[in-house]
Predict the 3D structure of the following.
Amino acid sequence: MKWSFGRSPTVTIVGCTGAVGRELIRIIDERAPDFADVHLIASENSVGSTMPVNGVDRVVRALADYDFSTTDIAFFAVGAVTSAEYVPRAASAGCLVIDKSPAFRMHADCPLIVPQVNAHAMAERPASNIIASPNCSTIPLVRALAPLHQLMGIRGVVVTTCQ
């Protein structure tokens, strides 16, 4: 990877009280990456509550007035409407955004990344500062199909999911 933060990054999890946000916190707790700080953002219903991250109680903040210039990496684990409104604001503040919603999946300037499949697409930091993530059923599917595609080539797949 040709880009770095030059120091331990500050991370913000937008949607920290949802299933994906809680899983991100669990992974941070489990792996203990070297983050300078972790900020938590959720809906107005959760603002002011606390959640532990690496044994430290963190206060949940509001999205509407959050200053993304204090964040190096923001994980957005919210719906498309919220992402469409706030991801560009975070990205324009210089924050690298990893968005789980469908809001930016088809944008040419936002790479669609599954790290175990196409991490090479992150060799350069995207000019948009936005990395999109496929949906929850696509990720394991492409992880399974990628080695098959490399071995024999796959021209098409028909998939039906019930979510």
